[in-house]
Design brief:
Rossmann fold, seven-stranded parallel beta sheet, 13% strand, globular, alpha/beta, 7 strands, 2 domains
Length: 254
């Protein structure tokens, strides 16, 4: 698919679907989204993947969220492998800056992605604290998160990019774990998934192991400080309009 080679595509797709339905470890959940047509297949694939590679660590204590009451600000930990000039950070930057600092303290849990870019510098100004877990193993990272007193741990990767699902498997946050801007962890240690009525319609919520939190409008946050794109003008690229429209028409009819 990366190479646009569709030889035997239907046969290969069928084999993948049959494998997942038979409980075989034949696909990664993130890439499987490009193949699967049914949400129940996506759920099955995610469950297989989590159980095989990132099973919940046994005997990890679950804390009562009520025990946190009266202990000051709620401490939110955003765990990401992309605190740099990348799509997730570009979308989320403005949100970090807009947290109510009277109620929340926000901590970046960086899986080794920070660089010298302007975006990383902006993010470091937006957070109240910054913890680099990139060189720590899962148990060490989970211990560091507990030491930092993170109340709610937010997963911004799922199975995409430089993710740390193994950290979440240790339940390092005493209250809840949330996944945002990703799909289908299929893991019992993720409590909530943030969505909207389009990406997870009401009839499909039953195919998620997480409790679906439906935001009004759109689940995807966007930074209002981004650069507004101008409409494309083929003449700026030196293309005559007749050639451009001919190419569009050919693609639409082929």
């Amino acid at each position: 698919m990366y190479a646009a080679d569709w030889t035997n595509y239907q046969e290969q797709k069928t084999a993948l679907l049959q494998g997942v339905r038979a409980g075989q470890r034949v696909a990664r959940p993130f890439m499987f989204q490009a193949v699967a047509d049914r949400p129940e297949d996506l759920q099955a694939c995610a469950r297989l993947y989590a159980r095989d590679l990132y099973p919940q660590v046994p005997d990890m204590p679950r804390h009562d969220p009520a025990s946190r009451k009266g202990q000051g600000k709620i401490r939110l930990g955003y765990l990401s492998g992309e605190f740099r000039d990348q799509a997730t950070a570009i979308l989320m930057a403005g949100l970090y800056e807009r947290h109510d600092r009277g109620r929340f303290e926000i901590i970046a849990l960086d899986n080794g992605s920070a660089d010298r870019s302007a975006m990383t510098a902006r993010l470091k100004r937006a957070f109240d604290g910054w913890i680099d877990i990139g060189d720590l193993n899962d148990a060490q990272a989970a211990a560091r998160i507990r030491e930092a007193g993170i109340d709610i741990l937010i997963n911004l990767n799922g199975y995409f990019g430089k993710h740390r699902m193994g950290v979440f498997a240790q339940r390092p946050a005493p209250c809840r774990s949330i996944i945002w801007l990703s799909r289908h962890p299929g893991a019992p240690y993720i409590d909530y998934i943030i969505a909207d009525a389009v990406v997870i319609p009401a009839g499909e919520q039953r195919f998620y192991d997480e409790q679906v939190v439906t935001l009004p409008g759109c689940y995807q946050v966007n930074d209002d400080r981004g650069v507004r794109s101008r409409p494309a003008d083929p003449r700026r690229a030196g293309l005559p309009r007749t050639v451009l429209y001919s190419a569009i028409s050919t693609r639409a009819t082929s």
